[in-house]
Amino acid sequence: MNGDAASAVPDTPQRTETDDVVISIDAMGGDMGVAEVVRGMGMSHDKNPRLRFILHGDEAALAALISRNAPLAARTEIRNADSVIAMDEKPSKALRRAKGSSMSNALEAVRTGESEVAISCGNTGALMAFSMLQLRKAPGVDRPAIAILWPSANPGGYNVLLDAGADIRADAEDLLTYALMGASYARNASGLARPRIGLLNVGTEEHKGRAELHDAAGRIAAASEAGEFEYIGYVEGTDMASDRVDVIVTDGFTGNIALKTAEGTARMIREQLEEAFSYSTLSRIGAFFALPSLKRLQKRIDPRRVNGGVFLGLNGTVIKSHGGADATGISAAIKLAFTLAEIGFSRRLAERVAAIAPPRAADDGTA
Amino acid sequence: MNGDAASAVPDTPQRTETDDVVISIDAMGGDMGVAEVVRGMGMSHDKNPRLRFILHGDEAALAALISRNAPLAARTEIRNADSVIAMDEKPSKALRRAKGSSMSNALEAVRTGESEVAISCGNTGALMAFSMLQLRKAPGVDRPAIAILWPSANPGGYNVLLDAGADIRADAEDLLTYALMGASYARNASGLARPRIGLLNVGTEEHKGRAELHDAAGRIAAASEAGEFEYIGYVEGTDMASDRVDVIVTDGFTGNIALKTAEGTARMIREQLEEAFSYSTLSRIGAFFALPSLKRLQKRIDPRRVNGGVFLGLNGTVIKSHGGADATGISAAIKLAFTLAEIGFSRRLAERVAAIAPPRAADDGTA
């Protein structure tokens, strides 16, 4: 990291359009290997010359790959890492050997302020554990959350869902914090001035669902003016992709199961569609003529284009890219990282939460 | 109801293939109206002459409809009901005016033993509340559950998911009961000798998820031999439609959200597929040639063909048909009702649960 790039990440969100934006990337841990990561960086850099990278991993391997792309090499600093956290490693075990790993080093560059956003394709549990330890929770946040973009009928094409699986529990205060963080994310990443927030439940009627949800509903409704969002009440699983809501708030257990259920459903329909189109000569002719339409559809629901769960509620922003992300997926995560880094998102979010969420009992020293 | 039909429902599951099977149907409360219900009955009766019906609702309207189908009329007894429970009625309010409603009357025919299975397209919450009150919980069951069939890659085409929304809570003992009931349902309705049971969680690793799930996992594994099922461990949302599991066990909050999320995802893909095929002349030509394939696909994932959530854990079986079910959907629910009634399913299930599930503290008078 040289002094120029570091000074390009000031403490205030105001930037001129000529400033560099530095992204810290853990090159290791993805299923597709480091070459895909470097290819994704190249794709992003071709489109956006303001990007600079700090790349963490096996220095020799990374240097050989980067050297083939001279303009990218000039904008990338490689930092050697001694170890890699495995995809299936238990977070508690990974924590004991965090030091010197590419994942930990990528986060360290955010902690020191050299970069504002870190990206990793590695183990989600370990990445969250390392992030909590190295970056610490933002003031007023008790449980950080993972926000994802969910393909929807909205004009922008997506809804935000959080928590997608950072924590299996969330009480009413946590759900209020998620609403504030989700609103801030939708405002800053998707440009919605006044996002519509819904609370995920088993029915839209007021009397339905768990008691903690009724408590959370009251808190979220009360915070809507100060939080500059609209609270639309309970939403159901069928609303996940609807255009009547922008941000869907739920605990990480429910959010994770909803997300993976949708992935499984989409995969099954895709497989059956392929089977249907290869069934007979007639269906193969149909598939030939329908190909442009099917490709357009596939592009629209392509999970690689919305690659990146974002960890919210930390002192810095962390993007968890899909473990199987290819170059297109990596490039999508970098684009999101650029948007969030450029506006100083993590600081904006922390200010918003601190201003609205009541301090936790444990935070003010009374309990 | 005449004496012949009543005597055709003996107390033992052994039947000869010439016995009548009586189904009690709440004709009111569906979105499509009573004519669809009667049409569905006609479709079923054409295929299966062993069916007899007790039909509850507005006698004048039902008699006029039924009279147009003489063979069906000869097999149907109409019972007038004074009121209908509305679709959006709060269960607690509905309970106060249950008496004399078509829904309550349909369940009453099961309570008295005239019929073994009741079907209703009405309000799920009210139907469960009435069922608990009129039929009572089976011995050993603390929380009845709703089991649904989930389109999957399995040879039979479906997995069983429970609880799909009967109760928003379930502790470890309830989850064990769900495993036993789900295994019994898969064995009797789908003919699987030794169903594979999975417990829905946010990851398949043993250390993941909530503490009550770890507790439930131990209990379910311990009961697998006596319950004649195979416990395969945790499954994720992506496994919902997979062929590595037959029965997926979860609490009713999570199950309901997973179900509705999958419905919403499938609907969105279907809409985008239609949009893709009407985009250009070429895509419309493609759609023309692909039509047979698309129709085959649609038939395969048609929710009407798996119509019917089944209430398990009561003294009698209740099938909740989809509120928007048309004649095809009603007929599918009747087919399922016939299968379950013919084998004396609710008694078999109760025997299985009573034999394996440890009695609740509250059941044995010690607490």
Class from helix and strand fractions of chain A? alpha/beta
**How many angstroms does the end-to-end distance of chain A come to?**
43 Å
Spatial order of strands in the largest sheet of chain A: 3-2-1-4-11-10-5-6-9-7-8
CATH class of the largest domain in chain A: Alpha Beta
- Which architecture name of the largest domain in chain A does CATH use? 3-Layer(aba) Sandwich
From the alpha carbons, calculate the radius of gyration of chain A and give it in angstroms. Answer: 21 Å
Measured by residues with Cβ under 8 Å of the partner chain's Cβ, the largest interface is: A-B, 63 and 63 residues
Number of domains of chain A: 2
Helix content of chain A: 40-55%
CATH fold category name of the largest domain in chain A: Rossmann fold
Please state the overall shape of chain A, judged from the principal axes of the Cα atoms: globular
What percentage of the residues of chain A does DSSP assign to strands (E)? 15-25%
What's the pLDDT, averaged over the residues of chain A?
86
Chain oligomer state: homodimer
pLDDT < 50 stretches of chain A: 1-15, 362-367
The largest β sheet of chain A comes out as: 11 strands, mixed
Order of secondary-structure elements of chain A? HEHEHHEHHEHEEHEHEEHHEEHH
Number of helices of chain A: 13
Q: Let me know the number of strands of chain A.
A: 11
